[in-house]
Amino acid sequence: MMTYALLAVPFLVAALVVLVVAQRRTGGPSWRVVGGVVGVLLVLTVAFDNVIVGVGLVGYDDDLTLGVRLGVAPVEDLAYAVGAALLLPAVWRLLGARPEVDR
Question: 15, 19, 48, 97: least buried by Cβ within 10 Å?
Answer without folding.
Answer: 48
